[in-house]
Write a structure and sequence with these properties.
The protein has 421 residues and is mostly beta strands. The chain folds into two domains: 160 residues, Porin, CATH 2.40.160; 181 residues, Porin (Beta Barrel), CATH 2.40.160.20. Helices cover 9% and strands 53% of the residues. It has three helices and 17 strands. The strands form two sheets. An eight-stranded antiparallel β-barrel has the order 1-2-3-4-5-6-7-8. The radius of gyration is 27 Å and the shape is flat. The termini are far apart. The N terminus and C terminus are likely disordered.
């Protein structure tokens, strides 16, 4: 009942406040985190760090993604488990719906959503949990575009798959700085309308009627796609998850990071990107050995690089618009190592290594679809990428990528005509 009451008060106060507006603002920042782990994990409470990226859909509701990492020590471990390991790396990624309320100086908020908790890579902590989370926090503004943000959050996983089999709960507290771009500001003051008779008498006496209020100054407005979006250079960065499988391992979900270059035309854009995925643990594939033997998982690799070139279409020409496109890509598996159970000598070992490296680089087609949210020169976007399959590649079948990021316009890509004297 108390939760319902707090939620109701927050909604009412959010609807009633007009002292500050944050609709369509982008929020990003970093934070320190202290986590109290469930006793089932047998981990010491630990400090860590993370970052967040959010967007105000309007003055009340927002969406947000965040991630953090900490290196938690194992409790009651007289000797490292396994040898030389006495800690685990805990990574948490979350997607949240945020309910905001507040004024010029501070914003109280509630949030809730889904979290993925990756407990590490070394046994017995080589597992991940799907959890729900909820939290409450406050932003204390320092000027118009920066705020100190404090938050308390709890995570609940209905079933722990790999330790005791019970439900688990862990809590965290965070403190950090947030920065705000675009939108927002203080609403204009409304000037009472003057009756026509009084207005005429003021003008007849040589006076001046009050001027109409100017629009609020809350940051850059959305670009008008018919003019500003066209013929621009954009540079951007993205991060996300790369999903693939091999002929030995099942599906893997690995983090990927990259940057891209976008040159816009009227309703299309040239797209070029460079990305690299850093695997949490090595992946394995099977390549037939020179003597014809089959040694399952005899090839390992732990990173992957991708270069993409193509064309994207932005047909709607709207502030928030879908986009789609396709092109060509080259993918290269990195740090390839082989083990040969049936090799007769160094020559066979070298032959197997050469075959694995040849199977580590292939060309592909790709298709992309996503959503672009424009704010001045800045764009927040998310997209999905599907690549085609290739024969004799270390990765089997199609791959899938889900990414989000930011891109920023550095100016016009089209030179105008000037008169020279």
């Amino acid at each position: 009942m108390r939760v319902v009451t707090v939620l109701g008060v927050l909604v009412v106060s959010a609807a009633g406040t007009v002292s500050a507006q944050h609709a369509h603002q982008l929020e990003f920042g970093g934070y320190g985190i202290f986590t109290r782990y469930d006793q089932a994990f047998q981990l010491d409470n630990q400090f860590g760090g993370g970052g967040r990226l959010g967007f105000f859909l309007n003055d009340v509701f927002g969406i947000e993604v965040d991630g953090n990492v900490s290196f938690a020590n194992l409790k009651n471990a007289p000797s490292p488990i396994p040898p030389n390991i006495n800690h685990t790396q805990v990574r948490i990624g979350s997607v949240s719906l945020v309910l905001n309320s507040g004024g010029n100086k501070s914003i109280l908020y509630l949030l809730g959503g889904y979290s993925r908790i990756d407990m590490g890579v070394n046994p017995p902590y080589n597992f991940a949990l799907n959890a729900v989370h909820g939290g409450i926090g406050e932003r204390f503004f320092i000027g118009n575009h920066m705020a100190l943000r404090l938050e308390a959050r709890g995570y609940y996983a209905p079933k722990n798959c790999c330790l005791t089999g019970q439900s688990v709960f862990q809590a965290s507290g965070t403190a950090g700085l947030s920065f705000f771009l675009g939108g927002g500001g203080v609403p204009e003051e409304k000037v009472p309308e003057i009756p026509k008779a009084k207005r005429d008498s003021i003008l007849a006496a040589g006076g001046q009627v009050p001027k109409a209020p100017q629009p609020r100054q809350g940051g850059p407005t959305y670009e008008q796609r018919a003019t500003d979006w066209q013929h621009k250079w954009y540079w951007g960065g993205e991060a996300g998850i790369f999903v693939f499988r091999t002929n030995f391992d099942s599906y893997s979900f690995e983090p990927t990071f990259g940057g891209h270059w976008l040159i816009t035309g009227k309703k299309t854009a040239l797209y070029a990107s460079f990305e690299q995925s850093f695997f949490i643990s090595p992946r394995h594939a099977t390549v037939v050995e020179p003597g014809g033997g089959v040694n399952p998982g005899n090839v390992s690799f732990n990173n992957l690089r991708r270069i993409m070139v193509g064309v994207l279409a932005f047909p709607a020409q709207m502030r928030v618009e879908p986009f789609a496109g396709g092109g060509f890509a080259i993918m290269e598996a990195l740090n390839i190592e082989t083990s040969c159970a049936t090799c007769a000598g160094p020559g066979d070992v070298a032959t197997l290594q050469a075959a694995a490296e040849d199977a580590g680089t292939k060309a592909f087609f790709w298709w992309m679809g996503g959503i672009d949210i424009k704010q001045g020169r800045l764009a927040l976007y998310g997209h999905y990428i599907l690549t085609s399959a290739a024969a004799s590649f270390l990765i089997q079948g199609t791959t899938h990528t889900i990414q989000g990021g930011l891109r920023y316009s550095l100016g016009s890509s089209k030179e105008g005509i000037t008169d020279r004297q």
